[in-house]
Amino acid sequence: MPSNTANDDAYDGVTVFLHWLTVILVVAMFLLVLVPGVVKGSVALHKSLGIVILALVPLRIVWRLFMGRRSSAADNLPLLLRLGAKGAHIAIYALLIAVPLLGWYYQDAKAIDVDLFGNDVAMPMLVYYDRALAMKVYLIKQIAAYGLLALIVAHAFAAIVYHHWLRGDGVLRSMLPRSLRGIAAVIVVFGGLGSSARAEDAFDINKFAADLAASLARECPMASPGDVAAQDACRQNIGQGAERAMRDYSFLFGGEQAGVFWLKDKKTSVFRGDLFQDLYMSLYMYTGKFKVEKEADGLGIVAVQAYFRNALPPGLYPYPFWHSNSKWDAYEKSNEIRFRIDKSGKVKFAYRADIGSNENRGPYTHVERPPFLGEWMWRDDSGGAQPVATLFSRYYSADNPNLIPLDTAYRKMALSFRAADCLGCHQPEGHAKMNKLTLLQTPLHAATGIDAVLDEVRAGRMPVDSYDDPLKIDPKVRQDLLTNGEAFKKAIATADSWEAANHRPKAQASAGR
Residue 475: what pLDDT? Predict the structure, then answer.
């Protein structure tokens, strides 16, 4: 074991090696972010290096505290400078751990896969999908990371100019390999990072489950699977009972995928709660039966008995579920809608499943749909836009004066996204590229995902190439994306506010604030 003496007036070899390995990794992390596409797969490599740094820094701390040899080159500095240096060293370790942790937290909040140099890694989940939380964490991470970058430059300046050129005190040389003493770059950190913990209010999941099941059975009772009037009544009534609260935030929806353990590995779509209820939950009939389960991760499950309306006209489905035979089959056979709920009562993930009972389904006949021709939207025989279920005229009140401006704004935005080659990913088959799918292919799907998409475009993370790296697109095309996207977002907010101001029963609560 090396002795902790200053006779050599330099750090031991392991300390020097770990130090410069950390420097190389941190510099590489910044280059991969500041120069996107510098190598193919730069986004995935950035994440992998973050995991490596997160494992490396605790090793550095253990070695430094118990086994390493320190330099005495700075021992004759004034007390305040020595205290400042000590504080900087403590801060560097804190921030080198905190920044990768924030990145991990951000990935989990967006339910994004964690991949280590091309190999799937089942990293423990720190948090379930929560887009609003992800944006907050991203901002904190940006501040911390760029603060670190500024301090790296400042520390290098202090080491080279103050210690090496002005004082000539050997501080710079003490952290260099013997053959390279005379060159320098050392990391110093600005720190002070707090954890963001949210207090959870008491929530009675059993009462909620009973209220939810009763509400859905009242609003969307059992009927013939092809009864258009019953489905329309369900669509108009749903969202006014116990399920009302979930209309005002977004969550994930997908299939059962029982063999996939981590939520971030499941193929799901992002939905605003109100649009999810009107577009998807209204396609089911409810019996009032329910059950409550507990997951090992602390989330509760509320499973309500539900049966799919498989005989409706094609235009009443949000898109042709029969584009995939297995998907149509899964919808037809589903007998539960299951909600994974946190301790505050907030839905994190909703999914259809066939693990419940068919005792109350009644007569059932498989419906064979015509072949899918690749059109997510189409025109009917009279020239009307389909699927009608996804049009603004179906969601908003007929007397809402914002319908025409809203439709115009959507069309302009859609043209911008088409020009940037964005729409190919954001359609139901986009799961081939992304597990957490934000749909854009219809007006209402675009309304549910525009916030998330604009965040990605603004941050330069969209569109992406086949390596998941950001694509370089014409600046005018990018500006059109943002301008037309913001105009569409504003048009949605205006239409929502009108609904709230005119006391329409299903208006978003947030729109009236």
Answer: 87
Are 439 and 511 in a shared domain?
Answer: yes
Quick one: tokens of 513?
């604030």
Residues 6+ apart with CB under 8 A from 222: 285, 286, 287, 307, 360, 362
The pTM assigned to this predicted structure is 0.71
Q: Among residues 198, 193, 210, which one has the least CA distance to residue 128?
A: 198
Q: What's the number of CA atoms in the CB half-sphere (13 Å) around residue 329?
A: 3
Q: Position 86: which residue type?
A: K
End-of-domain residue from the set 343, 362, 381: 362
In 3D space, the residue among 244, 396, 385, 226 whose CA is nearest the CA of residue 315 turns out to be 385
List of residues 6+ apart from 236 with CB closer than 8 A: none
User: Do 107 and 47 meet the contact criterion of CB atoms below 8 Å apart?
Assistant: yes
Tell me the pLDDT tens digit for each residue of 67-106.
Answer: 766 555 455 666 776 676 677 778 777 888 888 899 988 8
Judgement on whether residues 43 and 110 belong to the same structural domain of the protein:
yes
Tokens encoding 132? 């609003």
Strand ranges, E, within 234-390: 250-254, 268-272, 284-294, 300-308, 336-341, 347-353, 378-379, 385-386
Separation in Å, CA 185 to CA 57, 65, 80, 160, 395? 17, 22, 22, 8, 59
Where b means 16+ CB within 10 Å and e means fewer, 348-368 reads: bbbbbbbebeeeebeeeeeee
Give yes or no for a contact between 369 and 328, defined as CB atoms under 8 angstroms apart: yes
* Residue range of the domain that includes 22: 13-180
**Residues forming a β-bridge with 352:** 337
Q: Is residue 438 a part of any domain in this protein?
A: yes
Residue 36 lies in a domain: yes
**Tokens found for residue 365:** 């006949």
d(CA 351, CA 254) in angstroms, rounded, equals 5
Q: Are 391 and 316 in contact (CB under 8 A)?
A: no
Contacts of residue 423, Cβ cutoff 8 Å, sequence gap at least 6: 414, 417, 440, 441
Is omega for the bond preceding 463 within 30 degrees of 0, making it cis? yes
